Amino acid sequence: MKLVQKKSLVLGIDTSCDETSVAVLLDEKKILANIISSQVKIHAPHGGVVPELASRSHLEALTPVLEEALQKAGVGLSDLTGIAVTSSPGLIGCLLVGLSFAKSLAYSLKIPLTTVHHLKAHLFSPFLEQDLEQNKVFPFLGLVVSGGHTALYYVSSFDQIELLGQTVDDAAGEAYDKVAKLLEMGYPGGPLIDRLAKTGNANAHKFTRARVKRGPYYFSFSGLKTAVSLLVKEEKKKGILSEEFKKDMAASFQKEVVEALIEKIEDVLKSHPAKALLVSGGVAANSLLRSRVAEVAANHHIPHTIPSLLICTDNGAMVAYIGAKQLERGEVAELNVNAASSLPMV
Ligand code: KG4
Ligand code: ZN
Question: Of all atoms in ligand 1, which is nearest to the CA of residue 188?
């Protein structure tokens, strides 16, 4: 008698920061639905994410987002074979909302639960859209660059991940958001600065790049933010911030952030044989970073992959992808598993 293999249909949930996302992933790869409900409007008046508002909003959004995901995927709760949820790192209240929701679903549906590290989900998110054959892509150099993290990894397999360096203070996305606030532009700053930078002179302001003692592949962005704030203060003494000043500052700041990231990528590639360059996380949506990464990869004769904008920012599909792999290997979480605001990936 021929055995019919049961397909894997994994629900991925991410509530780590300010996006409530639920995805349905078929057989580890095919995204049937990836619904993202953004809280930008709630946090914009505050110029940044307010943790208490974020947790409450996840609580309200989760059920409708789940329903939308199931409907889009054309499946019912009883079709699911497993649940994957981000349990770290992130805002603790937000993580707990997602984790409790995932636990109750797994318990009531009697299906396994697995907990996923948010940065691992970002790191491997390029695999969702491209058929990155394992033997061709490993070892790869991975840059995860988002609102909360900026880190470089040397990845030899799904489980052999070496942290080469990370930011010692602000994440790149955090610097974007803070500088946008200084320039009175709104929130989130990344896309706004990206757009404005296209119209400014990137050489108008020169910044001194931070050298981090901790190691050759570590970053620091807080000094850059302070330098921008001093220049803004000087400019304000002359009156209101002119559009010209904002454009030039956006372009100069963006150039410095991107070149700081590119410099480290190039340094790593000199000493680490990498078969590919993978860039992910919210800041990977940046237009200048995307084009510079393409240039660097071409110079080193290696392919590069940056996911589409939807997969760059926080989403449930990337969580379901790692979760499906973990479930396949029997990595099932107990229902008393806890969330943690910060846990190392490796
Ligand atoms: O990955 P993500 O959605 O959330 C975190 O895990 O942090 O990243 C959000 C960050 C924000 O700081 C946002 O300003 C930044 O990504 N971002 C960008 C762009 N789009 C989003 N930064 C630079 N350029 C962009 N186009
Ligand atoms: Zn993220």
Answer: 14
